[in-house]
Amino acid sequence: MTIEEIRDLINEAEYEYIGIRADERDYQIGEIMDNSHQLFADPQYNDDYTELLYPYISEGVYAGFYDAGELNGTCALGITENNIEEMLKRVMSYGNKYYLIGGNSMEYGYDEDEIIIKNAEVIAVL
Fold first, then answer.
1. What structural domains does the chain harbor?
2. SS3 track for 57-68
3. Do 94 and 50 touch, CB atoms closer than 8 A?
4. What confidence tens digit (pLDDT) does each residue in 14-56 have?
5. What is the DSSP letter of 111?
6. CB distance 29 to 123 below 8 Å
7. Integer Cα distance of 55 and 43 in angstroms
8. Separation between Cα atoms, residue 79 and residue 77, nearest integer Å
9. pTM to 2 decimals?
């Protein structure tokens, strides 16, 4: 898919918020994506530093992270018609299946340019 085709999809989308996401799962256009999880690379402890706040995951898709639980939507990099190339380059470091997703409710994530889209629908498989 070309940059111009992605730009057209963004302009034609009937969603207030658009994101680009890498995911290991196969999704189809029109599907609602699973909610993401809040993951931490480093352990988080209680105030006394005696107990882990979140469990360490040793197997599966979240292996190597501490899982703080499910979020209220799907994480993605916020994409606009002006930053397509930059976001494509960045998302390619996260996996090999890429999706353009959209929704009408969003909150910001912890990472730079990260948005969490509630009930994120797959607009396109890139």
1. 3-36+71-125 (3.20.170)
2. CCCCCCCCCEEE
3. no
4. 999 999 999 989 999 999 999 999 988 899 998 888 899 999 9
5. S
6. yes
7. 9
8. 6
9. 0.86
